[in-house]
């Protein structure tokens, strides 16, 4: 069965229709690969438009993994179809057969956030502020509608196309770990990505402020070229996150404005209760549209070199996860204490 969605209105396609009835895979244009899925380019037979398609394995899996995947897909489809924001990539169609689930979405051909930065001729703090304004806008929109993403990271922000950094839109993807919440509700499930997870998530008592911590890590990463909380293993990263201590003393931070540093401190506030909110961050002087408080000088080859290394390591890690999913620990396992 397939469900077609156009401009937020859902309608059933003809009974027993399949993905192959409506789309043709575009040769070897594979965009990505996960433990149980691949993302590729397909062309709509009726319109000729190209779309990105996530093909997710549903057969031959354990009952728990299959249920987790199905819940994540249902969650992502429901939340993205209810969203209407220029920086959120909305799913448009869903097809299912006995072996696979196909999710059809807008094709973003410009690459991931950090990859786009690395490919640019130069990168300035001013351009970083423009990009981060888009990221913050998605968080403010989601939180205002009672949705917590819970896996904010640079790999989940894609450029719509190749082009200038300061005029090419970003799109947020992958709502598989997102959830709805009520004001004051305490979330308990330890989910996310170790390098971007907030300390309160590791304590299994958190709220939407966890997304702002992840946002702070991204701002730190693209301005300094490295993560604020590092370690030789995921458990060491989690230990560093729990401490919540980071440094802006490296030489690369000497050219960064005080306004940018102030925002980072407010986002990476260990106490979630006093951490800046998405709405407050949107109004921060560094992110405010038209503000000229960011540096227009090139951040330099050192920062770009670090980002290039990060991109290569990130791609390598995801390749290993795709090939050996059973050996990849969950966030709960990395916490080294309570298990989910």
Automatic annotation (TrEMBL):
Annotated GO MF terms: ATP binding; protein serine/threonine kinase activity
Residues reported in the UniProt entry to bind ATP: 55
One family name in Pfam for this protein: Pkinase
Keyword Transferase: yes
SUPFAM superfamilies reported in the protein's UniProt record: Protein kinase-like (PK-like)
Domain of life: Eukaryota
Domain called Protein kinase: residue spans: 25-287
CDD domains hit by this protein: STKc_CAMK
InterPro entries on file: CDPK_Ser/Thr_kinases, Kinase-like_dom_sf, Prot_kinase_dom, Protein_kinase_ATP_BS
Keywords: ATP-binding, Kinase, Nucleotide-binding, Serine/threonine-protein kinase, Transferase
Subunit-level organization: Monomer.
Protein name: Protein kinase domain-containing protein
